[in-house]
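I am writing to request your help with a piece of structural work I have in hand. A protein sequence and the structure tokens that stand for its backbone fold form the material at issue. Please examine both parts with care and let me know of anything in them that strikes you as inconsistent. The record follows directly beneath this note.
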Amino acid sequence: MLASNFRPLQPIPGEEPGDKPLSLLAKMRGDTAFPKHVLRYFKDYPARSFISDESRAILYSLIRTLRPEVVVEVGTLFGGTTEVLARAVWRNGSGVVHTTDPFGGDRCPAIFAAWPAELQKVVQFHPLMSMDFFLELERRGLLIDLALVDGNHDYEFALFDLLMTARRLRPGGIVLLDNVDQSGPFHAARDFLAKHPGWIEMGNGIASYDPSRPFEPERSSAARTTFLMLRSPPFLSISEAPMSWGQAAATGPSLAGFALDLPAQVTSGTLHYLVTFRSFSVHSNDIAEGKTRGSVRLDLRGDASVAEHRFEQPSRPEVAEPDKFTFEIDVSWQADPGAPPLSLAEVPRPLAGL
């Protein structure tokens, strides 16, 4: 049944060789977000994709335009929307779709096995809870280019999925949060944007929200969808709210400080930090950690630069026969009055000690 309903794996009728759909990054509301032939193709297809025709056309067109290498879907269900993502990635000629559903372990593999082999190659299914899924992406060192978050729609779950997606998202990446006609996802996105000033909505669903009409259904980023489409800043944006990226591997038993890769910007203020450096010994099952707190004054006048900050004393937590070291940094930017958030080109890097 699944195989008989599956359309041939070939370019969408109307696509030319090497064709890329319209740019979607300036304005997302209305019919201009995708070519008409894409909308025609995804009308009522796939049958097991429980989003609108316009939603499928937007997803396909975004992937064809942005050419992401890592696409993530939280909430596989019957794999219908996964097929839309996978067709766009296949058409691009590169990239992988990572999709997760903790209740799909018995259901989804058979669905994907009915697909053409070429499409199966661009999909990796994970029968995991979203926490385990994001930890697996982190373990693999994968950064997300585009994500569709369509998991549990309760506020707490939607906010967690959004926060974890943002943590693994490349600068300039895009998150589409579905079912924002429901209170949970909508207010999760609203609260997320309030605490992440560098992010923008690609549309005006949140900006046009009227609290006196709390259940107004027309509050999406694009017409005839239930998407909020959020785009991360082109650089890591650091504000007053503390930010951390978890543990990263370090190269030796001593930590001298850290380096900041600073893109061109004009801002000033004080960067406060808490650095945790850990030594592990698998042989003895021992762990030791050292914590270093401090601050760095930054006055940036428009040039890109690298700032190295060294501790007064290197951090060197000791265990017997250490065989692994990790670096973790929390930062908070206390901007001068009127100054914008601090931008980083990448996560702060550890500086090895002697």
Notes: The mean pLDDT is 92. The CA atoms of residues 91 and 140 lie 25 Å apart. Residues 243-352 form one domain. Residues 53-66 form the longest helix (14 residues).
